[in-house]
Write a structure and sequence with these properties.
- By secondary structure, the chain is mainly α.
- It has 13 helices and two strands, in the order H-H-E-H-H-H-H-H-H-H-H-H-H-E-H.
- It has a two-stranded antiparallel ribbon with strand order 1-2.
- Helix 1 packs across helix 9, helix 2 packs across helix 4 and helix 4 packs across helix 6.
- The C terminus is likely disordered.
């Protein structure tokens, strides 16, 4: 087993830096509010952007909006879009089997974050990306992120500068210059570092907790996915994971009245605003639409024969005249 420094070092470093939140001087209500808002806004870049849009193509948006979601996802330090999508699609292809990259059936710690720390040549090789993320890599920007592995780190560092500048400006407008620097530090610690750690563990909980704890609406999925209300609450609907494994293409994962899927309703709101162009419905609706379309085509093919004059079908061939 070889330590995967590309992941292990940033994960360890950001966890350690996030402990600065326990320094009283670095606390501010502004920083806390930015953290809580950021957990949802940046977290949705993972849930809505990386997962439901890129990995499953369960809705369709203009390229500018897709790139905006990816940019925010990169600010979460959860890898490039192609790597994230390849990992997730491999998980669906081999869920809770030996080739699953992060099954918690190995151990909870492995499924939660341990799998990130070790080199997995089956996961991080070109054949994996070619098989599971070829469509993603057709995008020039996404391909450039793979060719320049330092670029996600640069984007993450840039957001730190932006949060620091915003904090300094807020502090300078509301108090002396000394307070401005403390507000800048608070915004970085709470608005970036703590928020990043929280988004990480919420995302990782979908991989770990929802394959161990909860109930199942579908026992025929061939793996151990569960519906977990706590993860659904924290991850804006992603905790209804057994529903998702039963129908990965569907945009919504809510199937019972209490299974509220906030992400789906936010996508519906974006559709009402004209940003989302199409939404993939549940399998039952897709089957019904396909069946109706097939019946319509069959009716169109038989209609000319049924509507022809009685003698039209009995005309003699040219050679019999």
């Amino acid at each position: 087993m070889v330590l995967f420094w590309r992941y292990a070092l940033p994960i360890a470093s950001i966890h350690l830096l996030a402990l600065l939140a326990f320094v009283p001087a670095l606390f501010s209500w502004t920083g806390l509010v930015m953290c809580l808002l950021g957990v949802h806004i940046f977290g949705q870049a993972i849930t809505m952007g990386y997962h439901r849009l890129l990995a499953h193509r369960s809705f369709d948006v203009p390229r500018w909006f897709e790139h905006g979601l990816v940019l925010m996802a990169l600010c979460c330090m959860e890898d490039t879009p192609a790597r994230w999508v390849a990992t997730h699609r491999m998980h669906h292809a081999h869920s809770d089997e030996e080739d699953d990259p992060h099954s918690p059936l190995v151990t909870f710690a492995w499924g939660h974050m341990g799998w990130l720390m070790l080199v997995n040549r089956d996961l991080h090789g070109l054949p994996s990306y070619d098989r599971f993320a070829r469509d993603v890599l057709r995008d020039r920007w996404y391909m450039s992120l793979e060719k320049r592995p330092w670029s996600p780190l640069a984007i993450y560092a840039l957001q730190i500068l932006l949060f620091a500048a915003a904090g300094w400006a807020i502090g300078a407008l509301t108090g002396p210059v000394g307070d401005a620097w403390m507000m800048a530090a608070s915004m970085v610690v709470w608005g970036v570092l703590v928020r990043t750690v929280l988004v990480w563990h919420i995302t990782w909980s979908v991989n770990s907790l929802t394959h161990l704890f909860g109930y199942r609406n579908h026992d025929d999925t061939g793996e151990n996915s569960r519906n977990n209300w706590l993860v659904a609450l924290l991850a804006a609907g992603e905790g209804w994971h057994n529903n998702h494994h039963a129908d990965p293409a569907a945009c919504s994962v809510q199937q019972r009245w209490w299974e509220f899927d906030l992400t789906y309703w936010e996508i519906r709101a974006l559709k009402a605003m004209g940003i989302v162009r199409a939404i993939t419905p549940a399998r039952a609706e897709r089957v019904a639409v396909a069946t109706a379309a097939a019946a319509s085509r069959a009716e169109a093919l038989t209609a000319p024969a049924a509507s022809a004059p009685r003698g039209a079908l009995a005309q003699p061939a040219r050679g019999d005249e």
